## 1
Amino acid sequence: MLSKALLKELRSIAGRQDVLTAAGDLVAYSYDATQRQSLPEAVVFVTSTAQVSAVLRAACRHRVAVVPRGAGTNLSGGSLSIRGGIVLELSRMNRILEIDTANRRAVVQPGVINLDLQNTLARLGFMYAPDPASQKTCTLGGNLAEDSGGPHCLKYGVTSNHILGMELVLPDGEVVDIGGATADTPGYDLVGLLVGSEGTLGVATRITVRIMPLPEAYRTLLAAFDTLEDAGQAVSEIVAAGIIPGSLELMDRTVLRAVEESFHAGYPVDAEAALIIELDGLEDSLERQAQRVTEICHSNRVRLVHLAQTAAERDALWQGRRGAFGAVARLRPAYIVEDGTVPRTRLVEMLRRVAQIARNHGLCIGNVAHAGDGNLHPLILFDPADAAERARVEQAGREILAACVELGGTLSGEHGIGLQKQDCMSLMFTPDEINLMRAIKHTLDPNDLMNPGKVLPPL
Amino acid sequence: MSRKVFSPGQTLRQELEQILGTEDLLTEVQELTGYEVEGLVPAMACFPRSSQQVAEILMSANSHRSPVVPWGHGSKQHLGLPLKASGLLLSLARVSGPLEVEAANMTVRARAGMGLKQLSQHLERHGLFLPLDPPDADSATLGGCLAANSSGPRRLGYGTLRDMVLGVTVVLPTGQMIHSGGSTMKDVAGYSLRRMFIGSWGTLGIMTEATLRLLPLPESRCTLAIRSNDCGSLLQVMARIRASSWLPAAAELIGPGTGHEGVLGLKPGQWLLLLQLEAMSEVVQRQSRETTAAATDSGIADITRLQGQEMESIWQSYRRWWQRLETQPSAVRLKVSLLFTRQDEWLHQASDICLETGLAMRLVAHIGDGILYPHLLPGNPAQEETLQPAVEQLGQLTTRLGGFQMVEVAPRWLRKRVQLLPHRGDYPLMKKLKASLDPDNLLNPGRVLGASASE
């Protein structure tokens, strides 16, 4: 239980009705998109930087942990209050403060939902490039904290490449502007450090992002292959031909079947792998690019390659991919999404390893991958009621990550370390490297109160 | 604190000899004068050949509390904030092991001492492209570019090193060697330390190796050279392009007096806009058409399309103009960062300020990114007196327009009198980070945050 004094302070900062402490209310903030749960002691809804600062100052004085929270879609346990304390609820800070198309910038509050920003920008002919799969619900603050990716990273980069600056509230409540709307702000790249720090170094309360014009035109192709190897080779050859697709997505047989059952998007169910290849940019060169892609697919024994002829067809192809997780979820009572990255040329080898791991543990694992950037998402299916199977799932997940690292990749491409992967950090980092991260955490958060116990393995 | 050179004792010297042998260590004054930085001649200069040796040197220097000044080819030592102390000069020029090109993944791993030019040429042979083109591209090392976060015209189309670096190897002030990032675009494991080191001028650690993301060489390239007596109409052309759905790879605005006279028939007083187009050939054709149309609408007919050798040579000349401007005696170079839409007004008012003070202003600018580099050149000693008020007034103008100004190059007397960095609230946080990584302020002291930084 939080002390009466702290609760009184929180209520005077946020208002009585915006501090939740009833057990039933707290349950609603005790989970994220992982299978874990952890109860906070209070939830505080804030609507301004001043309130965020006051809450952090009070929490700091009382040495109580604070976990910032957006939409709670975190896939690595990062939104869980593992030490109780306060959930700082930012979803009401959801205003788009400024859109400046002439300077290609927008300023948003952290609770703005990614898709809301996209839709508002689209009306002006613009976009914000990072669009993670959870864009209908996830917030820009959460995207910043996780350095979110999505299907467009090969061409457009990750969140970090699109955040220009932010108003940041430090763990002791101090407010500081880092980066800015104009280029090359002097000194160290604090923005680069903060993006992807998973809410452990501070809270962004106003975010300046880069926006860009929507591509003038698209060509979307579906290509189905009899083997993963052929699909992987086609991916490499497309990129080597100087074509950088806006997105280059891969689905394996398990996923294709599940998706086709749900959506009837016209996916071939007996292929081993299918690619969705989307070219975007100026109309002038897209026809030739699409032709070249088709040729490359043919020279790699494609079974079927289809260019969407209408916007409706394009939507149908994408609907299947976007709905892949949901469709797969119907196969078994539950699934977890793994997330790892390998160099693009090792992706097929990695997917074969995943298949071997699945066989070794008697599990069903489907795969979707952002093939262009080597980011794979094995979907491990299981029944939560079956404790033995759960244990095998955990073990398989570990083995998959270890294999990613072994093939020159990384523990996480976009979901973060959070709680889920802390124990794998030593697969990738030496004690010196982890100590350096600890020193940085300690410099910004000497009392270890901001989203404590995440990212870095326990001492 | 006064600026000084640390004198290393016998033990440090012996330790360094043990690490490097005598061939890679300079200790004689006459050999060291070439490595002077701002009047500080180092006591010794080390030329390690591997990251491991860099680590051993830093460990040794750290235990003797000797300041360390990193060095590549020395092409940027006159930039940045004044160095506060010297001791050991650490050259990375010989840390230049083999390149690891992963053509299919479009990445390269290279060592800090690698010349940027050699690196680019090597990659081109693989059909690969590193779109990094700072003004000192012909002499810079990769390590120097990483440390200074160097960029050039192509940053408009391709971003900066922050966007290109996938992973780095860094030697910390203590001598510990760490890696951050790897060889993939998407990597969110742990904090993104690599970004913090890029542009830290070697004050947080020394980057000895990096893995960079590459692009395929563009199918078609050309430069449009657009000339006008009126810089306002050139800005208009650029504004039109920026309002469309494409951006050029580079857009440089080059003012009168920069050295361009005579090139492409440019007359004194004329402005030049260089637009670089790089894409598939149909796209380049369309971009050329649209640019020409935009220029015509702004009343400009003076456009030349350059390709091949002509294109290469205009960019080479441009880099030469830069170098010549900054090396003129008493030259002052400012870096002004503005929103794109504020540049017009800045140019207008800045020229009034220069008229009043009687100083000649020579401008080169990454106009598409809102980054301007005005050079102030006093014509005679009397005009030197006006440098200080001019720098101050330009700074105020920039602040008023929502941007910021930094003094990049200036005579030492002027640096002591004017504000070199804009006022910002985030320096204390940076200083804390510096103090945490380098508590004794031994690595390139003073170069990033100036005199007030923990010294």
## 2
Amino acid sequence: MAKFDCIVLGFGPGGMEAARALSHGGKKVAIVNKGPWGGVCLNCGCIPTKLLLGAIEPLRLLQDLARRKLAQGEIAVNYDKLQAHVKRHISAASANLATKYEALGVKLFQGAARLAGSGAVQIEGSGEILEGDAIIVATGSEPGFFPGLVADHQAVLDSTDLMFIEKAPQSLCVVGSGAIGLELADFFSAMGARITLVEAAAHIAPAEDADIAEALAQSLKKRGYEIRTGVAASRAATVNGGGQLELADGSILEAEKILIATGRSPNTSDLCCEAAGISLNRRGFIEVDEHLQAAPGIYAIGDVIGKALLAHAAIQQGNYAANHLMGNYTEPYASGPVPTCVYCHPSLMRAGLSATEAKGQGEAAVSISQFSVNPIAQAHAAPEGFVKAVWLDGQLAGMAAVGVNAAQLVTAAELLVAGGYNAANLQHLMVTHPSLDESLAWAIYQKPEKI
Amino acid sequence: MKDKSVLKLPDDLFYSDEHIWIRPGKEYCEVGISDFAQDQLGGVVFVELPEKGQSFDAGESFGNVESVKAVNSLFMPVKGTVAEVNAVLEDKPEKLNSDCYGEGWLIRILPDNPEDVEKLKRSAAYRAGL
């Protein structure tokens, strides 16, 4: 029986970072992974969608310039070549990960892992049993469905089906307008699909404030999107080869394909959690304590704990778990302000609290700087959008933006929020002019208005 | 910015709360932005207008005006159809600042119900609401 200091279950961004930190710390590490190396992020999530969206950047820029008659012409994306490029990139990157981690001394095992008690992990298929002094569960998530809204992989698709679809659909109905729905809608709209967004919440991008969502919706409508908010989809089906979506108000939408992007569901079914003393919350995610421990000797990190279903949250948690295990960190896990971005056009970003979240916690205020006054946004012929600073009891608690390249502001925003900047101490930081980033500074300099 | 007492708000026009003026006429009604709106916007750099023949509800956005300060939607004052679009604004959007009631008109429309126009505010009431 092979014995390790730590067995990491899952080779996505979280498991990867935990294994890296542990092996740099001199630990003997094994990774057991069910799917392709790199997890959802590399194989069917963050990375392929960015590769697709990158290819339509010039098209979006041309469209903005052409609206002002500053440019004309056509940019045609070669869909087949692009798909081949994406697949080639992913499989090369996936293989590269294996090489890199093996070079670090990490042992890689392919297969689903079952927690077999007292530090043992059994690998499905071979039945091989590994023994570890500690285990880090980082098994991630998969597309989640509600009853009636389940991908049949014909006309009703999940995000993985759609992002690699052989032929781009002419019409696409997207159920759920979070990051996944918005990004894939943006890409396929650029490929010529007529888009309908269906969102049960009061506005699209439901995690964001209503003003951010409204600015995004305005831009999307100009591009011809039909947007249905405040109405839930109740049933999706393939009818005569096409997609048919029934809404709660009784109306029926038809589209060549329907994307179900209603959320993610944790990968826990192979693990046999109960036997290992791990409890799941009512949404099925693994419950952890303040040190990300799910049971004695077992940590859980990333999507599977459902704190923030973001690759970078998993990375931070993986780093924490590894260092806590090695005794380097003793304090409870603290995420700090959580950054997110959505790379649709216009894009979105947020670091820290939204105004809605801040309002629930104390005296909230916002200060706003419009992109229309920013020379870089003007240069892109895209003055729509704005940056918003969110204040909680007088402290900078969050920053959000919508607009051209707004997603690129996320790390600067994260540092400003984490650094506790305000109109007084920001003077000590020389902010580049002209830059899109200075719109963050301008938002901080505006007088906060109570909300 | 101008004091509201010196804003030019011609008496023969009707005004919406979204700062659009409308000039009733026999063949069509002319639509533009008020002196207040152009003054608030500052230098206009781009105007995006609808196509001839498009129909809009009252309050629906029929275009955008961009200045170096803001991007604002233009809201239809009454339900109607676009009969003509001011092509001059494509090359000279600054006309919105220099002559908002004349050469800077935006669109000419055929209202569905001509009596809707007279339900809008007159100059004095619009000024009082600013």
